[in-house]
Automatic annotation (TrEMBL):
Keyword Transmembrane helix on entry: yes
Protein name: Opsin-1
Membrane topology: Multi-pass membrane protein
InterPro entries associated with the record: Arc/bac/fun_rhodopsins, Rhodopsin_retinal_BS
Keywords: Chromophore, Membrane, Photoreceptor protein, Receptor, Retinal protein, Sensory transduction, Transmembrane, Transmembrane helix
UniProt-listed SUPFAM superfamilies: Family A G protein-coupled receptor-like
A GO cellular component annotation in the UniProt record: plasma membrane
Superkingdom of source: Eukaryota
Gene3D superfamilies membership: Rhodopsin 7-helix transmembrane proteins
UniProt-annotated location(s): Membrane
Family per similarity comment: Belongs to the archaeal/bacterial/fungal opsin family.
Gene Ontology biological process terms, A to Z: phototransduction
PROSITE patterns per UniProt: BACTERIAL_OPSIN_1, BACTERIAL_OPSIN_RET
Organism whose genome encodes this protein: Pestalotiopsis fici (strain W106-1 / CGMCC3.15140)
Amino acid sequence: MYLDQDFVVELLSKTTHVPLPEPTSAKPTPLPTVVPTVPRVTFETLHDTGKRTLWVVVVVMALSSLAFYVQAARVPVQKRLFHVLTSFITTFAFLSYFAMATGDGIGFHQTIIREHLKETGQHVVKHVINRQVFWARYVDWTLTTPLLLLDLSLLAGLNGASILVAVVADVIMVLTGLFAAFSNTDGQKWGWYAIACIAYLVIVYQLAQNGRRTVATKDNKTRAFYSSIGAFTLLLWTLYPIIWGVADGARIVGVDGEIVAYAVLDILAKPVFGFWLLTTHDKMSQTTPTVDGFWASGAPTEGTLRVGDDD
Ligand code: RET
């Protein structure tokens, strides 16, 4: 707003002046010291490296999903379940990476660092750290890690109860990992993390102990293959909690580093794992694990009464 100078002078001259207090002989009382405390606010976010990496994974997941769907249509129906499961895994990963690359599925976790002031006895906010948490990852893992476990369990011929235990432990692991990522105190964060690690050990037990015992009754090729792909999976999966620990957990690794590390692991754990599983499985003879029954032929119709049939 523009104000005319003469108008302002006239206005001020008309202002009634409040009389100043008369000087007294009394000494001025000391005022309490007010320490100005403006907290430092920092943001830990992704930069160009992170963004580019997310887009690379979007493309890798899209192309491998297409390849898996095409391969699924070409194999005998008894082998198709593995293809369908693996295609779903990369499809969910594609959706989650597309969300993150376009800025969806990302939240902020706020850490507030306080300082104790001896003079006033107050706890003042000194530093506020806002770090991006990619929660879309956890949605992806909740859906895809059980499917990966299903792939391995079917290969080993694991019983239904063990599969269920492994899948439920897996969901608990991912969800408690998500709680850890958004927790407020160190106790809460590492408490959730410890629970997630116990759930992870339950999965390892089911697949390594029960899975190996079951696969021991199968042919040599299946046994050898289960050992190799199982060891590969165990190694890769164990790296996830380590990355979480140094990135989201201890905050030693930045957001870009975290994205790159998970991208490498995700490509190995999904498309590379998938291609290895499917090509090896397709090459195996008909005596090696195939899924028959309902999953290949649907519900049995033999012996059922069809209402409406004349004969
Ligand atoms: C969290 C943090 C809490 C402790 C543990 C974790 C384990 C995560 C795992 C993830 C595997 C993901 C895979 C993705 C494939 O694309 C949740 C990181 C134990 C094992 C295989």
